[in-house]
Amino acid sequence: MRIMGLDFGSKTVGVAVSDELLLTAQGLEIIRRKEENKLRRTLARIEELIVEYGVEEIVLGLPINMNATEGERAKLTLEFREKLERRTGLPVVMWDERLTTVAADKAMIEAGIRREHRREYVDMIAAVLILQGYLDRKSMKAD
Predict the structure, then answer these.
(1) What is the pLDDT of residues 1-56, one digit of tens each?
(2) What is the pTM assigned to this prediction?
(3) Of 2.30.40.10, 3.30.420.140, 3.40.50.11210, 3.30.1490.20, which CATH number belongs to 2-142?
(4) What is the residue extent of each domain of the chain?
């Protein structure tokens, strides 16, 4: 069994997947689309990855505002969750993603990735951080 982590953005979806032991998250790819509302190909690609990796659960980052309110981006993410659940039949767990993009950017700076290349990877790294946070919490509850 594996778990998939997703960072849903206006034109991209960062994708990560766990190892089979549910210990670590690895970045897979960034799914890009030309228009925000065009999700058919995005959902189809997510389905392909679910089958390829044997995913049984999805963790989707929820962009909550720093004051703990839900804005327009959170509303769109919750709508995406409904589409994911309907299309895949898998449970989709929401995960507070506050500051994951900041953490992803910081990790890339520490890794020496040049500024002009960071935008290429930030969504996938954010997906890894979302999924890793979920896996860490899950393992703490199991102990």
Answers:
(1) 999 999 998 889 999 999 999 999 999 999 999 887 789 999 999 999 999 999 99
(2) 0.88
(3) 3.30.420.140
(4) 2-142
Among residues 131, 101, 102, which one has the least CA distance to residue 9?
101
Q: Is 16 helix (H, G, I), strand (E, B) or coil?
A: strand
Measured in residues, the chain has a length of 143
* CB-based burial, 6-31: b 16+ in 10 Å, e otherwise: bbbbeebbbbbbbeeebeebebbebb
Q: What is the mean pLDDT of residues 81-88?
A: 96
Find the radius of gyration of the CA atoms of the chain. Answer: 14
